[in-house]
Predict the structure.
Amino acid sequence: MIVLSSDSMPIMKELDMVVFRNRLKEFAVKIGMSLVNQTKLITAASELSRNMLRYAGGGNVLIEIVNAQRQNGLRLTFSDTGPGIPDIDKAMKDGFSTGKSLGLGLPGAKRLVSDFDIKSTVGKGTTITIIKWKNG
Amino acid sequence: MDKIPILKIGHFLMVAIQVDLYDRLALSLESDLVQAVSKTGAKGVLIDISSVSIVDSFMGRILGNIAGMSKVLDAETVIVGMQPAVAITLVELGLPLKGVQTALNVEKGMELLQKKIQFTEEEEIDDDSTLQ
């Protein structure tokens, strides 16, 4: 996979989520992603950035335009140094939440993107990488 | 802080969300609307989301909350103007907004509210006649 261009931004407060969503929209438009795919990606990104804010007190997100097999897509990497997730299998189940939410964030985000990868170490932090292909 | 204006039209309250919703704004809309329903005795709430490009699980939950809370205060809620891409995304996300009435646009939403209110008024009249 080749990285064509990238941008990184911190998400430390709620309004950063709005700025991030707008930035992501610009990237999606730049690669010509369809409106439905844009909406799915931005919604998934909204869920993951909120999780990062709520459970880890904030973190960083890397936006990359990637290319593989002649297809462009966007790769997002959310990394935080929060408490980590003790049981990832449980966290990926619909309806499971340690907070007061609906528990749709992680599993819902996974359904909305082409590729979803989560790595978490208790006490160290969590890194989630998602890819949405332009036409995927 | 931003505020979303709430308009009173006859028996109804109307809100058009024209800005990007962030969590605190959505929460303040929820409490403002529910208070407005109680203060005005409105029978219906119409929320236009045609300018909203993203509804995630948090905002979806707020919309559901508004409908539920208004119902308890004897007001019906109709959400209108959802963009097709938002509808597709919400269902895939796993949040089909069950229990929330929707209509395609403001006009149809108003019709729906009007019908609902007429229906309840008729019911009330029927109740009166049985009492006599």
In short: Chain B has a mean pLDDT of 89.
